[in-house]
Amino acid sequence: MKLDRLRRSDTKRCAEIEQVLFPGDDPWSARAFHSELDQGHFYLAARTDDGTELLGYGGLAVVGRRGEYEAEIHTIGVVPEAQGQGIGKALLRALLERADEVSAPVFLEVRTDNDTAVGLYERHGFEKLGIRKRYYQPSGADAFTMARPARTPARDEVAG
C-alpha cells in the first residue's frame, strides 16, 4: 500500500466507497470531494502498491492564520475488504503529520457506535470533548467530538 495525493479522477470511486461505508447516513458525493479539493484541503489516497486500486482516502482541513491554525479531519474511509490492515492508521498518521507541520490542534467527529475508529483516535492522542446528538443524518446517530492538542513538528524540537 502506498499513500499519495487524492486526485480529481479518484472522486467518483471515493463516492462509491462512501455508499458502501455509510449507507444509513448521507454519504459524500463525487461533487463533495471535488469541493474539498477545490478548497485546497489536504486529501490523501491509499492505493495498492501498483497504484491501480483505491483502497481508502482521508482528508484534513487547516483553517486560521499563522500561529492560530486549527485542523479538522473531514473524513477517513477504507474499503471493507482492506479494513484491519493498517490503512486507516496510515492515513490518520499522515493527516496528523500535516497538522503537526503547522502546530494545529486537530478536531473530528466520529459515530459513538464506531468503537474501532474511536479506539484508533484515542491511541493517537484524541480525547472526547462531548456528544453531538443526531449529528449523522438521516440515521440520527450521535457523534463524539474529539480533539488532539497541537504538537510541535519534530524538526523544531531538534532545532530548538
UniProtKB/TrEMBL annotation:
In the record, what terms sit under GO molecular function? protein-N-terminal-alanine acetyltransferase activity
Report the protein name in the record: Ribosomal protein S18-alanine N-acetyltransferase
| GO cellular component terms, A-Z | ribosome
Does Hydrolase show up as a keyword for this record? Answer: no
Query: InterPro entries, from UniProt?
Result: AcTrfase_RimI/Ard1 (IPR006464), Acyl_CoA_acyltransferase (IPR016181), GNAT_dom (IPR000182), YpeA/RimI_acetyltransf (IPR050680)
**Keywords (A to Z) from UniProt:** Acyltransferase, Cytoplasm, Ribonucleoprotein, Ribosomal protein, Transferase
Family assignment from sequence similarity: Belongs to the acetyltransferase family. RimI subfamily.
Q: Tell me which species this is from.
A: Amycolatopsis carbonis
Instruction: Return the Pfam families for the record.
Output: Acetyltransf_1
Instruction: List its EC numbers.
Output: 2.3.1.266
Identify the domain of life.
Answer: Bacteria
